[in-house]
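so my prof wants the structure for this chain in the tokens format not the other one, which i didnt know existed until like an hour ago. anyway here's the sequence
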Amino acid sequence: MYKKNVQGWMKHIDFILLDLLCLNIAFVAAWMTRHGFNWPYQDDAYVRLAFVITLVGFVVHIVNDTMKNVLRRGFYVEMTATLKHIFLVETITISYLFATKESGIYSRIALGTFPFYYLILSYALRLLWKKHLRSQHRVSNTAMYLITTSDRVDDLADRYLSECFPRYQMKGICLLDVDRVGEAVRDIPINTCRETVLQYLCREWVDEVVISVSSRYASSTDLVDALAQMGIVVHIEVEDASIMGWKRQEVEKLCGKTVLTIGLSMATPSQVFLKRAVDIAGALVGCLLTLVLTLTIGPLIYLQSPGPIFFSQTRVGKNGKLFKLYKFRSMYPDAEARKAELMDRNRVESGLMFKLDYDPRIIGSRQLPDGTVKKGIGNFIRDWSLDEFPQFWNVLKGDLSLVGTRPPTVDEWERYELHHRARLAIKPGITGLWQVSGRSKITDFEQVVKLDTKYIRQWSMGLDFRIILQTIKVVLRRDGSM
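here's what i got, hopefully its the right format
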């Protein structure tokens, strides 16, 4: 799924949400300064005021793009920007109260102390956020690959290094007209040629590809078609673009050049913002439930299988980016080591997923002489999908979404063919369309890819909500683990 990046505020969705949280904490603190340790949201008038001031804060962020050039601002300039933001929020809110003739029902002490608390929290958040951004920029979150010809490569490398750093991590260059693998241009490695570029992009973490070629290559559509089917966002410089058959396309500016952007699906900034906001809200609730489950099933796991309560595994995320996925441990500690000896019993013949009718690695599970399977605590955890709850922490971190495609293991990813890669064109999720369309009953991986690609092409927030509701129904029927 392609995320537009021309709107500066969209780069800081998480910051805006966190700052609005700080705003509400300041609102509660201001209330308590006047009324003591009571909960302000018991009063309908203050509930209404909290909604208004949150909405005002959000609009001020969007209109002013308060985080623009944030990494270039020092402590003093950052303080000035924070004061300006808070002044606008307070002024607009008070103006609203006077316009609606409601100012008399609210405490002047609460309204007066709110900016003080908000200043402390918001300024501290900004400093922490800048530290976070700097650490991210050392290894950029967006991996870019350049495909061009030898007559353009120097100019292209200069432009992207000077105008797009540190927004992109340059993964490499492919030259279509000559084989110069092993060389480098401006310290960007030339690591593929025309014959090897697709296999490289299938195996490596690459989010976006820029194609800038001379006119004699402009009519070649095979490469663009393959990249788009893999789910990689493709930018073609417009003066060279002849690929106009894809429905999901958009003309925009990228590092000073006009490009035609092609992808499996595209989302507006408001859609991306809403999806992330829903993810954070759901993750916060899920993390609280995970804490409760840790206190209840955690001891049961340890008593039947001494060892860690949680299990972590390296998974492949959006466009091949690796991350640590967390689960409650439902298998014995040597489960991964025993996986190889059980591969011949895998119900998915391609080996692109791993499913067994009876898995002896599950805690407490054993097969009786008559073939009957006696289930244990591990089966209970998996049947009710309780093992998935720690993944709400992955959602909060941004590794996963609530709804998406399931992230494969590294060994599964290494077996992928080009079109399989499309299922990770978006951020993976805890649940998805194929899970609610058959879950463990689907053993044909091509069917999984088909359902995942369908979800990507038809994505909407309405579809996400339907999948979440259907997931709850599927889990309650206990027809297999996700």
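also thought this was worth mentioning. The longest strand covers residues 168-175.
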